[in-house]
């Protein structure tokens, strides 16, 4: 007599269906758990720190990333760009970066950068007038189309605000403040962490 009875076939079918349902249930439980350990887009938009590899930003170049839904510029300034910063004071609205809301205390200096990397400018690329995004005009002189006396910096095409290579605002333009420097720190790996520092994790 054969074992292939209708009852055996039904039993194998039920076992197979039950196994599939069990696997789907386990996947349904594990997937949300694993996904909960990854930073969500909402968390990033709310201010989760962003890590940037600055080793590939060559001198004279600018890299754009994003933090809190805003563009963040990392500019590797050349020695010539840094030398020019000390010559701009008489043309700037806040040359000493005295407004406390525009940069952390450790960036309240001529270069508006951390002491360990004075060549690197880290700044939110949003004009302090009405929130437009300035364009880089980093080349000094008329090569940037800004006139012979242009020291290099950034130009907002919306209403004509100008900023130097430390993102300090020029006098006589609509923008009231220097561009904002976000909290940031350099990790042992040499990478840059934007949105956190030793004093304010995830500020």
* End-to-end Cα distance: 77 Å
Which CATH first-tier class of the largest domain would you pick?
Answer: Mainly Beta
Category from helices, strands and their pairing: alpha+beta
**Count of helical stretches:** 3
Domain tally: 2
CATH superfamily of the largest domain: Rieske [2Fe-2S] iron-sulphur domain
Computed CA radius of gyration, to the nearest angstrom:
27 Å
CATH architecture of the largest domain: 3-layer Sandwich
Based on Cα principal axes, name the global outline. elongated
Question: Strand portion, in percent?
Answer: 15-25%
Describe the structure.
This protein is an alpha+beta fold and 203 residues long. The protein has 2 domains: 1-38; 45-194, 3-layer Sandwich (Rieske Iron-sulfur Protein), CATH 2.102.10. 22% of the residues lie in helices and 18% in strands. The protein is built from 3 helices and 9 strands; from the N terminus they run H-H-E-E-E-H-E-E-E-E-E-E. A 3-stranded antiparallel sheet has the order 1-9-8, with no helix packed on it. Strands 2-3-4 form a 3-stranded antiparallel sheet, with no helix packed on it. It is elongated, with a radius of gyration of 27 Å.
């Amino acid at each position: 007599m054969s074992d292939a009875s209708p009852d055996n076939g039904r039993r194998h079918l039920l076992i197979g269906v039950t196994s599939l349902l069990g696997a789907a249930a386990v996947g349904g439980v594990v997937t949300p758990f694993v996904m909960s350990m990854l930073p969500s887009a909402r968390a990033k938009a709310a201010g989760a720190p962003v890590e940037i590899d600055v080793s590939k930003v060559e001198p004279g170049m600018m890299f754009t990333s994003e933090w809190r839904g805003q563009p963040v510029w990392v500019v590797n300034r050349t020695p010539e760009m840094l030398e020019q910063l000390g010559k701009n004071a008489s043309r700037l609205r806040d040359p000493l970066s005295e407004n406390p809301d525009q940069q952390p205390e450790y960036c309240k200096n001529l270069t508006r950068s951390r002491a360990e990397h004075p060549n690197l400018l880290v700044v939110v690329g949003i004009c302090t007038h009405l929130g437009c995004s300035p364009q880089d005009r980093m080349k000094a002189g008329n090569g940037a189309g800004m006139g012979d006396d242009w020291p290099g910096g950034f130009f907002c095409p919306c209403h004509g605000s100008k900023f130097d290579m430390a993102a300090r605002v020029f006098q006589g333009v609509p923008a009231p403040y220097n561009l904002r420097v976000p909290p940031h720190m350099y990790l042992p790996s040499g990478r840059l962490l934007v949105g956190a520092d030793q004093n304010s994790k995830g500020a």
